[in-house]
Design a protein that fits this description.
Tetrahydropterin Synthase, Chain A, three-stranded antiparallel β-sheet, four-stranded antiparallel β-sheet, 9 strands, alpha+beta, 291 residues, 9 helices
Amino acid sequence: MNNRGMIFVFTLVLVVLIGSSTIFRITEIERAVLLRFGEIVSEDIQPGLHFKIPFVDEVRRFDGRVLTVETDDARFFTSEQEQLIVDSYTKFRVSNVGNYYRVTGGDANTAGLRLTARINDGLRNEFSNRTLQQVVSGERDELMRQLTEELNLTMDEVLGVEVLDVRVQRIDLPEEISGTIYNRMRSDREKEAQQFRSEGLEEAEKIQADADRQQVLIEAEAYKLAEEIRGEGDAQAAAIYAGAYGQNPEFYSFIRSLQAYGNTFGGGGDIMVLEPDSEFFRYLKDSEGGN
């Protein structure tokens, strides 16, 4: 290779080196700042190709995706001075790249530690304003929402991040007091259950008394109506008997005698002592009822 060829190769290599030192690319999942002699000259470089001054400018890249920081178990007190062991985690992402670099130097671990301290302070305040029952079940979602909103009021300026979500994974009682707390809670629930049973029994007695009263009223009304119907039936029967007797007294007398015979001799074991010429045997001696 002659001198001209060597110069060409050297020039080509130099151009490549200068080009690689001048052009840089930021991806969609990255956030970056541009430093010049250690000072920030561009706080939030957008995704795409960019230029820098070789050996003078420096690009610092950070993860722009949603990050998760988990806090260690911490002890907090409720408004009832009940001690709880709380395990939580936080979702966040870089929002203000300049502040993030100035405060943390671009170190995600440093950001996580500072954010954890703020979260624990916020949880401590939120728990101290609520009872045990509220933080365990009733108001946990509201507590997390309020804490997230409060953190976002300052985190962009203080740390350069946006807090997306704060979640309590686990709430436990310390072993030394959990037995006492559980026994007290069980006693409270049993007392409440007994109160419900007493109220239910009292209501049942009221319902039963009202049902008995209505039963008596219904039966009395039914008996009254039945007696009225029976009276009307007896009156109608008497009128029919009277009408039939008036049309043919002899036939009516005959029918009544047959009914009397049936009632008298139907039992089979009855004994009667009567004179042979008794009126009772009138139609047995003569079918026409003669004497």
